[in-house]
Amino acid sequence: MNLPMHLLPTTVVGSYPQPEWLVDRAMLSKVVPRTRLHAMWRLPAEHLEEAQDDATIVAIRDMERAGIDIITDGEIRRESYSNRFATALEGIDDENPAIITARTGSTPTPVPRVVGPVKRTRAVELHDMQFLRQNTDRAAKITLPGPFTMSQQAKNEFYKDDEELAMAFAEAVNAEALELQKAGADVIQLDEPWVRNNPDLAKRYAVKAINRALQGITVPTVVHLCFGYAAVVPGSTKPAGYSFLGELNDTTADQISIEAAQPKLDLGVLKELSSKKIMLGVLDLGNAEIESVETVAGRIRNGLKQVPAERLVVAPDCGMKYMPRHVAFGKLKAMCDAAALVRKEIGG
After folding, report:
1. Which of 47, 56, 186, 323 has its CA 20 to 30 A from that of 12?
2. CA Rg, the chain, in Å?
3. Which 3-state string (H, E, C) describes the chain?
């Protein structure tokens, strides 16, 4: 296992900016796709995998150069954090989407329809993990969409209720996660932003679905919550706190990842998660300015007022795919320098 031994290790939530030569960023900026968005890719199918490999190496090297301890593949091959996995499962009709209202509350969004038993019949992210492992000696994390979130991003036309659907997604996620662990993942993260959006349903079965998805996983696991990509959900519309947080103490996940910088979250809420490590968002992705090292260090110190250094992991608020690449890199570098500064202050 390659996990860093020092205090305040740095990581990313998942995504990194995809190059303009690979994707149509103007098209991407308008949407977080739930169905496949093949038109987003600039290259023909016969060249796409090679181009995605090249762009992934760029993302890996940027994270290494910035000083990130636990890197990802930048999710370069994905159109969104969730759609590639969800639409690869049996029982999902991606070709004839339904329309639902998005998490932001107003935008009509095409989503896949669930028309039969949801089953994982093939690996989806295995190549991504193998490629990442072959191309870095750093600790490597891979992310999967969470079962609760996927159940909320699809139109259920088969299962008796959403809980049954979420548990079917959980089984598919678990089968994938077990393979990713075998392929060398040092950390596995589930992205579950919708538990905040629909806390009443989440309270009924999200913990059960998350635990089923993580069954048998022995490497460190993370559940990521956020208020939505800054590029799509402006800061002015973000709530000041999480409506579903303390409940995550009952999951088997080792870490909870939260967005704290942009919404200026009251970090007193971290007391609700006393049994978990906290992956604390200390980069405001709604601000195109690259924060100073001192600004980010201040956010880390605020986290340390609530959580001991042994339980704190330093991260951006959310995925960075919607940002200009030079800004994303600059922010990560400032974050790594800030973590090193605070580590020195606390003797870690």
Report:
1. 47
2. 19
3. CCCCCCCCCEECCCCCCCCCCCECHHHHCCCCCCCCCHHHECCCHHHHHHHHHHHHHHHHHHHHHHCCCEECCCCCCCCCCCHHHHCCCEEEEEEEEEEEECCCCCCEEEEEEEEEEEECCCCCCHHHHHHHHHCCCCEEEEEEECHHHHHHCCEECCCCCHHHHHHHHHHHHHHHHHHHHHCCCCEEEEECCHHHHCHHHHHHHHHHHHHHHCCCCCCCEEEECCCCCCCCCCHHHCCCCCCCCHHHHHCCCCEEEECCCCCCCCHHHHHHHCCCEEEEECCCCCCCCCCCHHHHHHHHHHHHCCCCHHHEEEECCCCCCCCCHHHHHHHHHHHHHHHHHHHHHCCC
Give Cα separations from 285 to 64, 160, 340 (angstroms): 20, 39, 21
Joined together, the tokens standing for residue 301 give: 């110190």
Quick check: 235 pLDDT over 90? no
Distances (CA, A) of 295 to 87, 316, 348: 40, 13, 20
| Beta partners for residue 101, in sequence order | 108
pLDDT of 236 higher than 70: no
pLDDT tens by residue, 132-148: 999 999 999 999 999 99
CA distances (Å), origin 195, targets 48, 144, 150: 34, 15, 11
Band of residue 107 on the pLDDT scale cut at 50, 70, 90: confident
pLDDT at residue 232, as a whole number: 64
- The answer, yes or no, to whether residue 104 has pLDDT greater than 60, is no
| pTM of structure | 0.95
Q: What is the pLDDT of residue 77?
A: 97
Q: What is the residue whose two structure tokens read 């030079």?
A: 326
